[in-house]
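Everyone, describe these C-alpha cells:
***
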Amino acid sequence: MTDLVTDLVDRPTVGATHGRTTAAAAVGGGVLIAGWGHAVPERRVTNHDLARHLDTSDDWIVERTGIHERRLAGPGESTGPLAIAAARMALDRAAVTPTEVDLVIVATSTPERPLPATAALVAAELGATAGAFDLNAACAGFVYGLASAAALVGQGVARTVLLVGADTMSSIIDPDDRSTAVLFGDGAAACVLVGAGPPEGNGSTEPVRTTGAGAGAPGLVAADLVGDPAGVDLLVVPAGGSGRPASAETVAGHEHFLRMDGREVFRRAVRAVAASVGRTLAQAGCTADDVALFVPHQANARIVDAVLPRIGIPAERTSSTVHRFGNTSAASIPLALAEAADAGTLEPGDLVLLCGFGAGLTVGSALWRWNTPGPAGPNGPAGPIGPVEGAL
C-alpha cells in the first residue's frame, strides 16, 4: 500500500513531460491510435452445434444473420480477463507501459462485477494507477468511448488512454432462446490513444484543421452520438438493477436474460445508422467516396447489407467479422478494426468510419483519420485474433 500511495503522490500531472508528448502538444497534433489488441474465448460454437439443441439449422442462421460461428466464454474467460488480455496486447503493440496510462475506459454491458468498475479491475491487474471508469452504451459503447477518449486527450485532461470494448454476452443470453442465442458471442478488443504532438516542422499548439477529406491531424474528425428514445424498450434485461433487484422470482422468470424485438430493432437500426453516418460525413465536409474503410457494428450481416447502399459505401470497403464472431456488443467494432489494422488494410491519412447501434437505442458514428502506429512492442506486431490468455 505504501508503494501505491507513493506512486500516486509522485505521479506527474498531465502536461508534465515524462517521455511522452505533453498535453499542450496533444491538442495541436491530434490523437493517434498507437496500438491495438484483441482476445476471444477458446471455445468455438458453430451453427451446427446450436442446431443440436435449438430448433434451427446452419442454413437458417446464415441466411438471416450471416453468422457461421461465435466464441463463447468458459472458466476464466469473463469480461475482465478478456479485457485484460486485449489491453496487454494493445499496450505491447504501442510500446506503452501501464504506468504511462492516464485513464482506462472499458465499454461494456456485462461488467465483471456490479462494483468496482471493470476498468478499475483492468487497471489494477495491469499495475496502472490511472483513473478508470466503465461506459455502457451497449453495442455503440466503443464509439462513445472513442469520442470521449479523443476529447479528453485533445483537451489535455489525459495524455494516454487505454480504451477497451469487452462483453461476455453469453452471461445474459438464454441458451434456449433461438432468437438471441444464435446472434451473440463473447470477446474484447482494445486500443491505446496518445497525443500525437504538433505536426513536424510546426511548433504551434494551435488546433490543426480536422475537417474535410484532405490532409489533417490524425484522430477524431467528426462524431455523431444520438439516441432513439422510442426504441428504449426494444433491447432490455428486465432485472438485476436497482429498479428490479435479483430475487428467486426474477431468476425463475428468466428476467436476467436479454429480451429483444429483433424485427423492430432491424428496421430502426438501418434508418438510424444511415442517418448518423450522413450527419457525420456532412459535419466533416466529406462524402462516402472519401472513406477508406467502414467499420460497422457487427450485429447482423443483413443489417449491414441494408445500410451500405443507403450510405454509398461498397462491401469491398467494409470490415466484417460477424461470420466468425457473431455480435460481441461493445467488442464488435474494435475487433473488426483490429483485424483490418493487422491485415495492413489502412494507410496513413485514411479516413475510417465507425458506426455502432444498440440498446437504448443508442447510436454513434465517428470518422477517424488513421495514422502510422508507433513501433511494435518487444513481441513484434500483433498477430491474428486468438484466445484469451491469463485471468484475474
